Task: inverse folding
């Protein structure tokens, strides 16, 4: 007696891979609640530190709101850096990368699943930070348009996770230095993206260069849409920033696809890239 | 016979310390060439300092010689040292146990584990000191802060640094022992305590910003005394304007730091022994946490 095996292919396989890889990201969050706590606790503490710094400087109350928003958004940056960009490096270290590469599905769908799962679980953490921070520090919001705010958030995430997917491929070229590189990227991006202050403070030219990081434009637009007087501190108009975010999303996702394809070919040709670290 | 006795000779604390320091340096630095490592060591602390600089800039303008900002900046840079010393020891033991899986071999070697841990952490501390110096140079050159070698109160700075170092190493040893007995996420222990120190030490803002008139949180750990004393030694006058422990003179602060550091040594090494005993008895020396 033979059992008939139906193999998925094409878009069905793509979608099933995305769901399959997103699943552990979402369910895994509930399996280790300690980890969930610390994922909220540390960005929250950092945020509180910056809030008190502004209080010591007797800053206007909007700036406290900027810090709370930055604290919540930092959860996404950490997720992209440590659980997207570094993910294939971790897989390489634990010996799973070879399985990823020989699996009869595309690496793009695996990374997309990771991104969607990560986005969902990190979204919960960011929301907790935002809600507690807003309540604790009595942040006043004046949302101009919820739809525009939501659209900017989604576009920022698309560009950010696209960048994460591209970085994941590039991180495959690293060995032990991957951990250090991720560590190295953390503070400069937090500085240049303006997590805790309006990016306009850098001056136009420098802020424009910093806009290559999706969070820079994303947070600038969100600040303009969510806070009273936020528009006076914006770098560009929200409309222009949305166009920049759409461009960044397309460029990063496209680049991720190209780099990933190149790495996959390199892995097959050289047979070394998925080796455990030297 | 003479050869045998040489082989049986235990390495001693000095040799353990030096070998561990060499090993720590290799682990810290040999993933990159010296230039890349140098850049790596500077970028992170300078970026953190720059966040503070820009925050100040947008609220108060570009007067970076203002005593309030000088105290903030110096406190932030100095706090990086504390975090590194404490965390390098506390996280070091978990790194040995779970990343490199070598702790069990260290335990059967004829060495003192706390001595090894301090030696192992020395490289991270050296890198942190280098980063601190880079942050200070940046402040003196680009922000024109009133930092002059000739004005530094060395008589206060040197003993302050020495006893501060003893306190932080002791805290690290205490946390390393504790981390050894924690079954899930032990690596966050050091980081959690460093975060706690940030809020009770007046690293960037005085305690009054959080606690109002209550000053007792500043007396829980020696971190606040060290930060205030070091600020006063580095920039006399400016450091004295920081709104913490203003009722205490420099010698009084130093005396408090000495007392706290000596008490820390006794408590930390005593508690480490207790945790170490528990870890040995309960088979935690080669445990994998979160498993």
Result:
């Amino acid at each position: 007696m033979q059992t008939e095996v139906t193999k998925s292919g094409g878009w069905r396989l793509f979608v099933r891979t995305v769901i399959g890889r997103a699943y552990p990201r979402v369910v895994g969050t509930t399996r280790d609640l300690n980890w969930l706590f610390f994922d909220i606790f540390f960005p929250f503490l950092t945020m509180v530190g910056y809030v008190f710094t502004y209080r010591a400087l007797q800053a206007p109350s909007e700036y406290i709101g900027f810090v709370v928003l930055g604290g919540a958004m930092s959860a996404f940056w950490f997720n992209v850096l440590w659980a997207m960009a570094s993910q294939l490096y971790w897989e390489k270290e634990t010996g799973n990368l070879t399985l990823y590469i020989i699996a009869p599905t595309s690496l793009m769908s695996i990374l997309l699943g990771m991104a969607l799962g990560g986005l969902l679980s990190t979204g919960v953490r960011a929301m907790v930070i935002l809600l507690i921070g807003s309540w604790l520090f009595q942040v006043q919001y004046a949302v101009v348009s919820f739809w525009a705010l939501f659209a900017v958030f989604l576009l920022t995430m698309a560009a950010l996770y696209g960048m994460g997917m591209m970085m994941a491929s590039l991180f495959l070229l690293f060995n032990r230095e991957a951990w250090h590189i991720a560590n190295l990227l953390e503070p400069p991006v937090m500085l240049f993206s303006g997590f805790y202050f309006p990016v306009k403070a850098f001056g136009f030219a420098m802020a424009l260069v910093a806009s290559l990081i999706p969070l820079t434009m994303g947070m600038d637009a969100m600040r303009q849409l969510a806070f009273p007087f936020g528009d006076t501190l914006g770098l560009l108009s929200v409309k222009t920033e949305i166009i920049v975010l759409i461009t960044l999303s397309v460029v990063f996702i496209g680049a991720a696809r190209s780099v990933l394809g190149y790495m996959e070919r390199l892995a097959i040709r050289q047979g070394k890239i998925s080796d455990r670290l030297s | 016979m003479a050869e045998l006795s040489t082989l049986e000779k235990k390495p001693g604390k000095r040799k353990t310390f030096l070998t561990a320091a060499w090993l720590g340096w290799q682990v810290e630095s040999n993933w990159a060439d010296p230039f890349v490592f140098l850049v790596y060591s500077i970028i992170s602390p300078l970026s953190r300092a720059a966040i503070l600089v820009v925050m100040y800039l947008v609220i108060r303008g570009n007067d970076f010689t203002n005593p309030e900002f000088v105290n903030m900046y110096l406190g932030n840079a100095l706090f990086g040292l504390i975090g590194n010393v404490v965390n390098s020891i506390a996280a070091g033991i978990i790194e040995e146990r779970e990343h490199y899986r070598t702790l069990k071999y260290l335990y059967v070697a004829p060495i003192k584990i706390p001595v090894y841990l301090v030696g192992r952490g020395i490289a991270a501390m050296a890198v942190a000191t280098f980063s601190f110096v880079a942050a200070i140079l940046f402040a003196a050159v680009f922000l024109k802060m009133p930092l002059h070698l000739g004005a530094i109160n060395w008589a206060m700075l040197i003993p302050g640094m020495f006893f501060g170092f003893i306190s932080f190493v002791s805290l690290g040893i205490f946390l390393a022992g504790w981390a050894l007995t924690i079954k899930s996420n032990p690596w966050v222990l050091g980081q959690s305590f460093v975060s706690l120190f940030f809020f009770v030490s007046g690293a960037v803002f005085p305690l009054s910003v959080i606690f109002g008139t209550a000053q007792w949180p500043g007396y829980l750990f020696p971190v606040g005394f060290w930060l205030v004393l070091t600020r006063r030694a580095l920039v006399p006058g400016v450091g004295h304007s920081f709104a913490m422990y203003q009722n205490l003179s420099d010698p009084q602060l130093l005396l408090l730091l000495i007392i706290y550091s000596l008490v820390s040594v006794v408590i930390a090494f005593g508690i480490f022994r207790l945790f170490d005993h528990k870890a040995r008895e309960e088979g935690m020396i080669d445990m994998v946490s979160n498993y």
Summary: The radius of gyration of chain B is 20 Å. The interface with chain A takes residues 31-32, 40, 43-44, 47-48, 50-52, 54-60, 72, 184-185, 188, 191-192, 195, 198-199, 204-206, 209-210, 290 of chain B (CB under 8 Å). Residues 67-99 of chain B form the longest helix (33 residues). The CA atoms of residues 93 and 176 of chain B lie 6 Å apart.
